[in-house]
């Protein structure tokens, strides 16, 4: 009988290991509603007035908190006056900071501080078929969003790389934001052939190359230090995100580590590196990362849960129990945490507590009943043998 009991115990302990390793992976892939929420406050309308007072209208993107707006060169070609508008605010004190007719880019400077910006993604990792979104003001309809995919990559007659896309843009959209599904800026809308659904985007890389030519630094987020480093760092982050999304945790850990060398307080990425290290069974390094995330005050429940998993896999059951308990104090209706704490109590020979946790897990998530009911029965037999 004893051999049968322990055989069943080992079977269910194996199942517990599998469950503990399971995670609904955070891919940071957003729907159109979330993309619009991210970009809406950072996309503006551009009005350009010629010497006769005629108006042409385009779109622009806020790329720096200190008043930098990127748009297309052709939107303001020959303008004597430029205005930038965002919903109920219009800014008239606008100057041209940098321009490049070949790449069709223009950087405007406003004497205002913006609270929201768009952060660019390196474009080297972009792929055909990738989902993208365009936000601009076609025909004056301010901040309209359209969705499409990357159709291909082209080089125009000026030897400028362009991203071909299917997201529709019409007159007035030029200079608007084109974003990937993580809400990162990959370029500016520039032109289109509407009947054939052929539209083009100037890659965001050119924006930062243009800024570099006039010695501009961008120092408005924890992710950005100086423009000369940004393209490389954006690629590290982009490569890391792509690897993480593909469950390639070995590469994700490497790229995230390079990114964190300069942006050590990017706690969202630190959490992902911690989880990558957890999946790579590098538990002590994962624990160190999770601990730093907890010290920052972010992601408390998830971080406590996965640090607890690291302690469990390292056979430090007392610390695992402590983390699971702390997580349950914040989120007392989390079935998975009760599930894992039940196995921790089992390892600590706290059989009654293990049964209590498993019953709570079943109450919160009935799908656990089929699996945990035999586990509870076996543990009750162990309790009876103690008597």
Q: Could you characterize the architecture of this molecule?
A:
With 387 residues, the chain is of the alpha+beta class. The protein has three domains: 2-25 and 231-386, Alpha Horseshoe (Serine Threonine Protein Phosphatase 5, Tetratricopeptide repeat); 41-110, Trypsin-like serine proteases (Thrombin, subunit H); 131-213, Trypsin-like serine proteases (Thrombin, subunit H, Beta Barrel), CATH 2.40.10. The chain is 44% helix and 22% strand. It is built from twelve helices and 13 strands. It has helices at residues 2-21, 32-39, 204-213, 227-245, 249-262, 267-279, 283-296, 300-313, 317-330, 335-347, 351-364, 369-386; strands at residues 43-49, 55-64, 68-71, 81-86, 89-91, 94-100, 105-110, 131-136, 144-155, 161-165, 177-180, 185-193, 198-203. Strands 5-4-1-2-3-7-6 form a seven-stranded antiparallel β-sheet, covered by helices on one side. The longest helix has 20 residues, at 2-21. It is elongated. Residues 1-27 and 219-234 have low confidence and may be disordered.
Name the features.
6-stranded antiparallel beta barrel; Serine Threonine Protein Phosphatase 5, Tetratricopeptide repeat; 387 residues; 3 domains; 22% strand; Thrombin, subunit H; elongated; alpha+beta
Radius of gyration: 27 Å
Give the proportion of residues in helices.
40-55%
> What is the topology, as strand order, of the major beta sheet?
5-4-1-2-3-7-6
User: How many helices in DSSP terms?
Assistant: 12
Sheet of most strands: 7 strands, antiparallel
């Amino acid at each position: 009988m004893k051999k049968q009991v322990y055989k069943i115990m080992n079977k269910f302990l194996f199942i517990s290991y599998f469950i503990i390793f399971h995670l609904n992976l955070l891919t940071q892939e957003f729907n159109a509603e979330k993309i619009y929420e991210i970009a809406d406050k950072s996309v503006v309308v551009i009005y350009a007035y010629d010497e006769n007072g005629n108006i042409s209208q385009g779109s622009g993107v806020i790329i720096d908190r200190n008043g930098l707006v990127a748009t297309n060169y052709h939107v303001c070609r020959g303008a004597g006056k430029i205005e930038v508008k965002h919903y109920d605010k219009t800014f008239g004190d606008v100057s041209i900071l940098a321009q490049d007719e070949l790449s069709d880019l223009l950087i405007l400077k406003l004497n205002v501080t913006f609270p929201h910006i768009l952060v660019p993604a390196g474009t080297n990792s972009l792929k055909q078929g990738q989902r993208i979104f365009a936000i601009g003001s076609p025909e004056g309809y301010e901040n309209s969003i359209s969705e499409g995919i990357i159709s291909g990559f082209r080089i125009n007659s000026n030897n400028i790389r362009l991203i071909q896309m299917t997201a529709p843009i019409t007159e007035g959209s030029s200079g608007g934001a084109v974003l990937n599904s993580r809400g990162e800026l990959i370029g500016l809308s520039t032109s289109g052939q509407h009947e054939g659904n052929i539209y083009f985007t100037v890659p965001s890389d050119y924006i930062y190359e243009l800024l570099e030519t006039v010695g501009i630094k961008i120092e408005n987020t924890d992710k950005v230090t100086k423009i000369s480093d940004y393209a490389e760092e954006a690629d590290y982050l982009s490569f890391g995100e792509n690897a993480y999304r593909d469950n390639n945790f070995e590469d994700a850990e490497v790229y995230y580590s390079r990114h964190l060398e300069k942006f050590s307080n990017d706690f969202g990425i630190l959490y992902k590196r911690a989880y990558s290290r957890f999946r790579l069974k590098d538990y002590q390094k994962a624990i160190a990362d999770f601990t730093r995330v907890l010290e920052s005050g972010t992601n408390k429940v998830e971080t406590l849960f996965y640090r607890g998993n690291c302690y469990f896999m390292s056979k430090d059951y007392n610390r695992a129990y402590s983390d699971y308990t702390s997580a349950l104090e914040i989120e007392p209706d989390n079935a998975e945490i009760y599930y894992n704490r039940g196995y921790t109590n089992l390892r600590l020979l706290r059989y009654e507590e293990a049964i209590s946790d498993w019953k709570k897990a079943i109450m919160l998530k009935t799908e656990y009943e089929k699996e945990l009911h035999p586990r509870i029965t076996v543990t009750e037999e162990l309790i009876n043998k103690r008597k």
